[in-house]
Description:
Elements: H1 4-26, H2 40-46, E1 78-82, E2 87-91, E3 96-106, E4 115-117, E5 127-135, E6 149-150, E7 154-156, E8 163-172, E9 176-185, E10 190-199, E11 205-216, E12 234-238, E13 243-245, H3 248-253, E14 256-260, E15 264-269, E16 272-277, E17 284-291, E18 294-300, E19 304-306, E20 311-322, H4 325-331, H5 345-362, H6 365-379, H7 381-396, H8 398-407, H9 412-426, H10 435-453, H11 477-492, H12 499-516, H13 521-546
Parallel strand pairs: 1-7
Antiparallel strand pairs: 1-2, 2-3, 3-4, 5-11, 6-8, 8-9, 9-10, 10-20, 11-18, 11-19, 12-13, 12-15, 14-17, 15-16, 16-20, 17-18
Helix pairs in contact: 1-10, 5-6, 5-10, 6-13, 7-13, 8-9, 10-13, 11-12, 11-13
Amino acid sequence: MENMRLALWVGVVLLIWSCFQAWQLDYAPQATTPPAAAAPAQSAAAAPALPAMPGAATTASGTPAAITQPASEQPGQIIHVRTDVLDIEIDSRGGDIRSVKLPVYPVHKDQPNVPVQLLNPAPDNLYAFHTGLRSAAGQPEADHLALMHADQTDYRLADGSDELAVTLTWEAPGRASVTKTYRFRRGSYAIGLEYVVHNLGTDPYSVASYLQIQRLDNPPERSYFNVDSYSFTGPVAYDGKKYTKLDVKEMAAEPFHQQLAKGWIASIQHHFLAAAVPPADQQYVYDGSVANNIYTLSAVGPATVVAPGGEAELHAQLFAGPKLQAQLAQVADGLKLTVDYGRLTLLAQPLFWLLEQMHKLVGNWGWAIILATLLIKLAFYKLTEASGRSMARMRQMQPRMQALQERYKDDRQKLSEALMDLYKREKVNPAAGCLPMLIQIPFFIAYYWVLVESVEMRQAPFMLWITDLSTRDPYFILPLLMAGAMYLQGQLNPAPPDPMQARVMKWMPVMFAGMFAFFPAGLVLYWLTNSVLSILQQWRINKVIAGG
Length: 548
């Protein structure tokens, strides 16, 4: 039993290491095409594939039949759209959003004027939304290759206004016209997409809305020092029940195909994503494939037949921005699962909620971590108090335990029996001191993923030298303070009977300081706070026990 505490500490180290190893396996980087082989991406970017329309004619190879109207060589105009949180470029060629910059989120904290950019038309960094309408064979279509028209090239969300609409139009004279409208809302990264289709001809006009995401597969290089490489980067999908991270290699070998309602597709990276969300009440056909190291996800809706002289409306939603959980939950079911807390999601999500409530109270994520840790400590106070009392009584028994060690120093079997007899007479459980540590382990891992994955804490300052809680302490002061607190905490507890165990426990704070040195500062702050609270609790218990 006297080995329990040491074994548990070693278990903590091994658990953290095994979690790191599991993370490496779960989020290992995909094999990427060398730069010299990236040339084919240019042709793919220049003429992105059109998804098949339900019931559309296909070629002998099974690909969609070519569009009937000739593609215009005239380049599109760039339409600039600014809201309070988005800086967007729309290409009138297809009416596609071709670039999304996030002014509120700089790439680096020391470069506030360089925002994160999600979509990018450049072939060597391709990341694109394609949206449009497929038509039946022989009919003109307003796909993402068609040339559209906008009344102006610059739009801004006006002060005092909560919504901005950007409208593009397309017409095939005598056949059909389409109005494509993007709707932006103040403070929101969700983008409404609406089509109004008019049949100008004398025959029925059949259309199907599609959403497509294309991206060059180029995940960040795996590095212990690169926090962006901690998270999965790549394609994901939701089938109405299950969230799936898609393996690009597997999708290249075997493209996926599904038909379902309430689904969506997205491309995610650390803290950010671009998602295409069809209407939840319609069955869409989902496809995923890989070519030239570019993965393509598409969702094609059911065919809608517009009678001569009639019109039809079609809707969808896009999302391009940070993984703000409140907004993701409003856009679609399951979309907030892109905030990947791993196997402890059930614990991490309520923990984030608690941190969020504390942040609303104090307005600082560092103090929110301290207050949340205090509340967790209070919630388990009675449980840990019983453990602390057992440890305090063991500390009082230390002279007798040392006497037994001297008496049976050459007979470990008799020493073990004598110690067990002493514990039994004094009604002390030596394993009770391990309970607080057992409680900390799942919270530690959950805290880790909350701090790494929650964009709300990205670049969040605390105080003094801690300017970003999601990255390591630049001066390693918090890990040193944590090591000091762990050392003091050990001094309040009884030393292990075995001298070797005692030496290992003495060096345990140093080991933890070295391991925590490169962990997010917020995580070290949590462990430091928890250690300080444990010191205060154990000091008080020791004082009460010593006073009789």
